[in-house]
Write a structure and sequence with these properties.
There is one protein chain. With 299 residues, the protein is of the alpha+beta class. The chain has helices at 41-54, 69-77, 85-95, 112-125, 178-185, 194-207, 209-212, 252-270, and strands spanning 2-10, 15-25, 28-39, 62-66, 100-104, 164-175, 221-231, 236-247, 278-288, 295-296. β7 (221-231) and β8 form a beta hairpin. α1 packs parallel to α3 and α6 (194-207) runs antiparallel to α8. The chain is globular, with a radius of gyration of 21 Å.
Length: 299
């Protein structure tokens, strides 16, 4: 039996975050941690468990200790998974076919390994020891690729580029009355389950981006994920949309389209009770893969 202690930390929520884990195999600790420039506390809690399980050999029984009720009660009590479905899918895959016990431990209560996992997560969040991103290529002087020498719009020819794995994450916010968000969370909107409909709309929109954006390429998407984080006191829904493909060009537009249409769908589902909702901050948060390298919004 292997014991693992996991924890996550985030500043701003969403904001920069870190995760940490201590893997105890025959009493010998292995310490692992990681950093994300734009994330949430719940995502870091899940990522800590994922990385800890990945560090343990397949088939080995594991006990996961965490002070996160979000993680432990979702895995043991069947709490509804309203967000972070991409990470829940990874966790389900890692736990399938192996014995995993989930144990809640009270945080900051003197447990040696829980305290150490917390320290690892906080240090990672603060960027201590985290790898620095490579210098970003300045492409502002290279011209617009969708415009030819005569100023005519054109579709970029990507036929000579290799297929590579591309990922992108986009975000957005919908700000509403706190009472409106309360109705959503209570499942009392007349049109139905707001987040389920918005998630489906976002996924569908990503798949049809090439039909909406005239010069976008049609891409074979391997994954589209939509997550929602809520701030009931402020009436804010934060949308995170991710897209992945193995193709000749990136998926930023697919992620952006998914995030934007999620916001529009939330507005449509709720406009009968709150026409003053504001959709804002639709932007690319991360882009990975391709010749231009990685792009991450620093917050």
């Amino acid at each position: 039996m292997v014991d693992v202690y996991t924890d996550g930390s985030c500043s701003g929520n969403p904001g920069p975050g870190g995760w940490g884990a201590v893997v105890l195999n025959d009493g010998k600790p292995q310490r692992i941690s990681g950093h994300d420039l734009h994330t949430t506390n719940n995502r870091m809690e899940l990522m800590a468990a994922i990385k800890a399980l990945e560090a343990v050999s397949n088939g080995t029984p594991v006990t996961v200790h965490s002070d996160s009720e979000y993680l432990i009660k979702t895995m043991t009590k069947g709490w509804k998974r309203n967000a972070n479905q991409d990470l829940w899918d990874q966790l389900d895959s890692l736990t399938a076919g192996r014995k995993v016990d989930w144990q809640w431990v009270r945080g900051h209560n003197g447990d040696q390994w829980n305290e150490e996992a917390d320290s690892l997560a906080v240090a990672a969040m603060q960027g201590k020891g985290a790898p620095k991103a490579p210098p970003k290529e300045d492409r502002t002087t290279q011209g617009l690729t969708h415009v030819d020498a005569q100023g005519t719009a054109k579709m970029v020819d990507v036929g000579d580029k290799p297929d590579t794995v591309r990922t992108a994450i986009a975000g957005g916010k919908v700000t509403m009355k706190p009472e409106t968000l309360a109705l959503i969370l209570q499942g009392r909107m007349e049109k139905g389950d707001v987040f389920t409909v918005a998630r489906l709309a976002g996924i569908n929109a990503a798949k049809h981006t090439w039909e909406l954006i005239p010069l976008a390429h049609q891409l074979p998407l391997s994954h589209v994920g939509i997550d929602f984080e809520t701030d009931p006191a402020k009436g804010i829904v934060t949308i995170t949309a991710s897209a992945r493909t193995a193709a000749k060009t990136g998926v930023e537009m697919e992620a952006l389209t998914a995030a934007a249409v999620c916001g529009l769908t939330i507005y449509d589902m709720c406009k009968a009770v709150d026409r003053g909702m504001v959709i804002s901050e639709v932007k690319v948060l991360e882009k990975h893969g391709g010749r231009s390298g990685d792009f991450v919004v620093e917050r």
